[in-house]
Structure formats: structure tokens, C-alpha cells
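Our collaborator T.R. sent over the components below with a one-line note: 'Predict the complex.' Nothing else. No constraints on interfaces, no templates requested, no preferences about which chain binds where. So this is a plain run: every listed entity goes in together, and whatever single assembly comes back becomes the starting point for the next discussion.
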Amino acid sequence: MLTVRDIMTQDVITIPPEASVRDAMRLLLERGVSGLPVVAGRRIVGVVSATDLLDFAASLPDLVIDVDAPEKLGPAEVWEDGAEPPAAYFSEMWPEASAELETRFAATEHPEWDVLEEHTVAEVMNRAVCALPPTASVPAAADYMRRAGIHRILVMEGEQLLGIVSAKDITRAVGERRLIDRRPVFDAERLFDERGWQ
Amino acid sequence: MLKLRDILTPDPITVSPEMSVREAMELLVQHHVSGVPVVSGGRVVGVVSSKDLLALAGGGDTEAAPLTERVVREAMTESIIALPPEADVQEASELMERAGVHRLLVMDGDRLVGIVSALDVARAVAEHRITARRYIFNPRGQPDERDDLDDQRAP
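Returned assembly:
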């Protein structure tokens, strides 16, 4: 059975939580990846994807408060330096944002006004980390992606990050015909059990 | 053989080349998609991905207009990678890999039928709908350990 270890990308590009949003954008685009594990010290604290960054960029000029998501409007949480940022941190910031952000966003020649530099990966990352052990089968990883609606899964052994497996890696394995359905030809009973008579 | 028509997303969300970059960003995020076809006058003129939009947003172009005034046409890729609905999923996956793309347009001539992404292929794998069949001529043994038969393939 093909496992995630067989198809994963081993040299994972990571980013620290205190890196700026612009650094994350640059890294994603330069390295041609669609998501980055966020690593503090040796610990994985989240994942940041192209969609997370796009969501951030799209929210800059004027935030539209989504009334269907009341959790976004909950009481502010205190983020002490060094502590993990509360999930609501990012969305809590923007109701106060004024229209001048539009101008600030465009005026990148003054670093102090550059919102992409001002905000960090910790604010935009997704803290829910989806991980599987290296021995998980490729169909199991694909099933995880389908159920969670995600494009990539971290491959971890305990606390150690071994690699990352994306929908693109699975597509590559399909293209290379590496997903093999081995079946004994003389065992009619098993064929019947699996597929039924056709 | 599993065909693209079996796994495609029909009637995909599309954008026009004149749509603002900001609107396109919101649309991609809202629909949880990483790329959309760009359609003008019923014709597909390109594809725009989240990375194309990010490149424009994060480009640091100091003379640039705000994102509400910039349009999809500036960010999109004009080359279209498409296959017909009857194309085989494994061949399509090969093409995606070769072309370095995450999605293919499924087109019947000039008509956009749907879109197939890497996630759609993964979904089919999860459902055990894609496998290259190999027949093991050792029904009573333990076929998974017979690596010497790896290259034996049924005609």
C-alpha cells in the first residue's frame, strides 16, 4: 500500500509566527507552495495558506462584518506577549479599521504605513493543524483532505515534522500510476466481496 | 477508466476580466476555491488563481492603484490548460503535474463544462475510484509481499 511517506515533500519550507504577512506572501510565491507550517522554536503552532493570506488582503480596505459568524464578534481576548494568540485576535482588530487603510495599503513606500509588514503570520494563520503519521495510506490521507476540506496535511511522527503531503502530491502519484489495486485473479470470492458481479 | 466528467465540478464560478482584484479575492475566499476561469462574452480568456492575486496585492508596487481599482485582467494567466470531459483522470493528473498546475478546465470545444482540481483527484482517490489494476497470480499467498511481481500487469 502506498503511504504518505512515499509521496510527501520532505524539505518543508516553514515560517516563524512573528514573520510579517508580506514575508509569508513572498515565500509562498517564490517557492511555489500553497501553504507553510508555522514553527515557533521546534513546535508547530499553525499553518498559513494562500487562502488565509488572500482572506487577509481582501479584508484590508473595509471589513464587512459577517453577521452569520457571531463568534467573530465575541469579547476581545487578551494576547500576552509570548502566549499563543487567541483565535479571535485577527478578526477583532478590524472593526476599528478606518477607510484610510485603503490608502495605507497602496502606499508601501513608507514602511511604517505598510499593513502587510505591520501584521504577522500569527494573526492570519490557521491554528488547527491537520497531521498524519508517515505510515498512513495515501487513500486515508485523501479521505482526510476530503472530510476536512483542506489541501495539505503535515506528516508527523510525534512532535517531529517529517514532511508535508498536498492534494498535488496525490495527483502526481495518480499521474505516475502509483496507486495500485493489487488483486488475486483466482480468488473470485474476494472480487465478489469488493465489487459485486458486474 | 474514470473520466474527468465523473469527478469535475460543473458550472464553476467564473469572473470577468473587468472584475476588481479585491472582488475576485473575496469571491475565491468565500467559495473556498484557489482558482477560477476568467470568462468574457461567453468565452474563456484565462484563469486567475489565489497566487496570481496575492502576487499583485503583495507586489509592493508603490505607484499601483488600490485593489478596488485594479482588475482581474492584470493578474490572470492567459494560457488555458484544458481537456475534454472524456479524458482519463490518470492522464489528466499527468498533465497537471507536467504543466505544474493545480486545476484543469474541462472544455467541450469552446464550451466550459467544468473544472477539475487536485482536490477533486484526491477525493476520487479517497473513494477508491482511481487505481491502476494489477493482478497477482498468487491468490493463496500474501500478494502484498510479492514484490517480485511488481511489474506484472494484466493486459
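Summary for T.R.: The first helix of chain A runs from residue 4 to 7.
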